[in-house]
Specification:
The chain has about 130 residues and is of the alpha+beta class. It has 2 helices and 5 strands, in the order E-E-H-E-H-E-E. It has a 3-stranded mixed sheet with strand order 1-2-3. Helix 1 packs parallel to helix 2. The longest helix is centred in the N-terminal third of the chain and has 17 residues. The protein starts with 5 loop residues before the first strand and ends with a strand.
C-alpha cells in the first residue's frame, strides 16, 4: 500500500480502494505470468470506522475524509473496506485453484447488508 497515496482537491492525503485492489490484481497477474505467486500483502488497516481511504463497500468519498480521520500518519482502510478487500482477494485466488473449501464466487460486500460487531480483540462478521 505504500506509495499509492494521493492528495484530494483540499489537500487531504488519502488512498483509493480501487487503486489498492488494482495494484494487488496487477501484481498477482504479473507474477502468475512468470510462474510465481504473491508471498503476502501488506495493508494498513484498522478495525475502526475511520474515513481515511476512499471507495470500497464503505462508500467513503473525498468529501467524507474529515468526518472521522484518526491516523497520526498515513490513511488506513476501515473495517468494512478491509473485509471488502479480503473478499475480493479471496475471489481472485479462488480462480487460480481447481477447488476451494469456501466458495466466495457469489459474495458481494454491501455496507447495507453487512453487519460487523468489533471490539479491540475480535471481529464478528454476519452476512
Amino acid at each position: 500500500m505504500h506509495g499509492n497515496t494521493r492528495k484530494t482537491a483540499d489537500g487531504s492525503k488519502t488512498r483509493d480502494f480501487e487503486s489498492i485492489l488494482g495494484e494487488i490484481k496487477h501484481s498477482h497477474a504479473l507474477l502468475k505470468e512468470y510462474g510465481q505467486h504473491l508471498g503476502g500483502i501488506h495493508l494498513e488497516l484498522t478495525g475502526e470506522d475511520v474515513t481515511e481511504c476512499v471507495g470500497g463497500a464503505a462508500g467513503v468519498g473525498d468529501q467524507d475524509l474529515a468526518r472521522n480521520w484518526k491516523s497520526a500518519c498515513d490513511p488506513r482502510l476501515n473495517y468494512l473496506q478491509s473485509l471488502h478487500l479480503a473478499v475480493e482477494v479471496a475471489k481472485m485466488l479462488a480462480e487460480d485453484v481447481g477447488h476451494v473449501d469456501v466458495d466466495v464466487s457469489d459474495v458481494d460486500v454491501d455496507a447495507e447488508e453487512l453487519h460487523v460487531e468489533h471490539t479491540k480483540t475480535n471481529v464478528r462478521l454476519a452476512y
